[in-house]
Write a structure and sequence with these properties.
- The chain has 564 residues and is an alpha/beta fold.
- It has 16 helices and nine strands.
- Helix 7 links the parallel strand 7 (351-355) and strand 8.
- The chain is elongated and about 160 Å long.
Length: 564
């Protein structure tokens, strides 16, 4: 029988038949036949080896070609992603809506730094014995388009009368008043710094038999200091509402001939936060009583954090929610961004939770009684970025997504003042069909998009979050996005540009307390300074929980706060 070599079927070569064909006339001699057979076998093996080598070489060339094409395609995709990232980076830096980076020097969150480096004696600010120089008049603002001035502003009437010698008519008759023309100017009185002298009357027995009696000084927010409640309210407003570092406020005080050391101001900030803690505790109870909570986190650096490098990042976790008529914003500091933090903060909460797609919320979302929502604004943001990297002037698939999402927001805008019942009806009748179109568009578009491109990552984000994105349509009072929380974070981010760091954990926690309360006051429609002024005047005298509750922002009215 002919000799064969076993090879896998896909490697068997085709061998030319003339190279292995036997002669037509075979010899009858056994030895000659053996020799012929051996020769034939050797020829067959040579032909087989040559054919196998050729097949292997062809297979290697094909594999190399496939690998080259794969590498080329991956390189093209990577280059495309890099170009997209470059376009987005340039847009963030130079685009019309981007915030230019500040060239301001990097400063510490100096309240705790200055407080720590000071002594108890520095709790008293030096008060000049001479009167301050007269302040300069306020500069007038340039005239432009003017909105009506608020009715809450104090009105000072300045009457301009016609001179008596001009009140006689040309006919000789004395003129009478028939009306008046009124115009209003916005005026400003520069900050007034003054000294409050508390004079406590003392009475004694004429015969000096009994101990004298002295009038009691009303409870003060920081008893061992000479800072008034109103001064502290302004200090906290300047730092935590206006985002000004303590060093700048100290320069303002010095300009008005009332210098207060920065260390002293820092101690007063930390002391005020401690005083305000009971209000924060009650506000947190109201937060947990709501049917849904927004949550997000932002970075903050703390230089003296145990087991962490000074350059590492820590976090402010921000929650917004509460009852409909009692909105609350809470800041909490934590060195970690792990999923254990939201569990610690909201372990007693049961209701809906609005988040972004960060995996750190998964553990909390798995708690029984917590239903997770995901923000549509985050989805839209990704498709907007995909639009930015498209060829200029051309409409692409990302534009289609943005337009569909815009329809969802248009429905929300048209029904923002509706009752939850009517809003639920609108979502069921109008929003669900749009959501169905978005999902159908997703199924059609995703297979054709490069997974790691701007469009591909936006599609993947949409796909992964879909079950949590559509849950807002279950009720009429649920939010469609997490903008409420992001808006609450913004003042902190703006302030962080001025001070950038917290020195200690205690300082970060103090900042969290004050940011929580001023943002909650703003959420309730109050002017932060006026509310802080009332709180710091009355909180030291509070003796019961009811006394403290009366000072919560939703229990205060703007008109009452304006009364001195």
């Amino acid at each position: 029988m002919p000799f064969t070599t076993k090879k896998p079927a896909f490697l068997l070569p085709e061998i030319a038949s003339d190279k292995v064909r036997l002669p037509d006339n075979l010899p009858n001699d056994v030895a000659a036949l053996k020799a012929l057979l051996h020769a034939q076998q050797a020829a067959h093996e040579v032909a087989m080896k040559s054919a196998v080598d050729a097949a292997v070489e062809a297979a290697v060339e094909a594999a190399v070609a496939i690998a080259v094409n794969t590498v080329k395609r991956e390189a093209q995709e990577r280059l495309h992603r890099m170009i997209e990232q470059l376009i987005l980076a340039r847009h963030r830096q130079f685009g019309s809506s981007s915030e230019q980076s500040s060239s301001q020097a990097r400063l510490f969150d100096e309240a705790e730094v200055l407080a720590k480096s000071s002594t108890d004696e520095q709790d008293l600010a030096p008060i000049p014995s001479t009167e301050s120089a007269a302040t300069a008049p306020a500069e007038k603002k340039p005239r432009g388009k003017r909105a009506p001035l608020s009715a809450e502003l104090e009105r000072i009437e300045i009457v301009h009368d016609v001179p008596e010698d001009e009140r006689t008519c040309p006919c000789g008759t004395a003129m009478v008043e028939i009306g008046q023309d009124i115009s209003e100017q916005l005026d400003i009185v520069p900050m007034q710094i003054r000294v409050l002298r508390h004079i406590r009357k003392r009475y004694g027995c004429p015969g000096s038999v009994h101990v004298p009696v002295t009038a009691v000084l009303p409870p003060q927010p920081l008893p061992k200091t000479n800072a008034s409640p109103d001064f502290l309210a302004m200090l906290l407003t300047v730092k935590f509402v206006d985002g000004q570092p303590i060093s700048r406020f100290a320069k303002v005080l010095e300009r008005f001939h009332a210098p207060v050391p920065e260390q002293t101001l820092g101690r007063w900030v930390i002391g005020s936060a401690t005083l305000l803690q009971p209000l924060l505790n009650l506000a947190r109870d109201s937060l947990l009583a709501g049917s849904f909570i927004h949550i997000d986190e932002t970075v903050v650096q703390v230089l003296k954090e145990k087991d962490k490098a000074p350059t590492s990042q820590s976090y402010m976790w921000v929650q917004a929610g509460g009852l409909p008529d009692k909105p609350v914003v809470i800041f909490d500091y934590d060195p970690s961004r792990s999923g254990k933090v939201p569990v610690r903060l909201l372990h007693d909460y049961r209701g809906y939770l609005m988040t972004d797609a960060y995996d750190g919320y998964n553990q909390l979302a798995q708690t029984e009684g917590i239903e997770r929502l995901v923000c549509w604004a985050h989805v839209r943001r990704r498709f907007v970025e995909a639009v930015k990297v498209q060829p200029k002037g051309k409409r692409g698939r990302a534009d289609e997504a943005v337009e569909l999402i815009r329809k969802l927001y248009r429905i929300e805008s048209e029904h923002k003042d509706a009752t939850p019942e009517l809003r639920l009806q609108a979502r069921q009748e109008l929003s669900l069909p749009v959501l169905a179109k978005i999902h159908a568009w997703l199924d059609k578009t995703q297979p054709a998009a490069a997974p790691k491109s701007a469009l591909g990552t936006a599609l993947t984000y949409l796909r992964n979050c879909w079950p949590m994105l559509i849950r807002y349509t279950e009720r009429g009072d649920l939010p469609i996005d997490n903008n409420r929380c992001e808006n609450a974070i913004r003042p902190f981010v703006i302030g962080r540009k001025a001070w950038l760091f917290s020195d200690t954990v205690a300082g970060a926690n103090s900042s969290a307390i004050i940011y929580s309360l001023v943002e909650t006051a703003k959420a309730n429609g109050l002017e932060p300074y006026l509310w802080l002024r009332r709180v710091l005047r009355e909180l030291p005298a509070a003796k019961t929980v009811e006394d403290v509750e009366a000072l919560l922002p939703w229990n205060c009215r703007s008109q009452q706060l304006m009364e001195n």
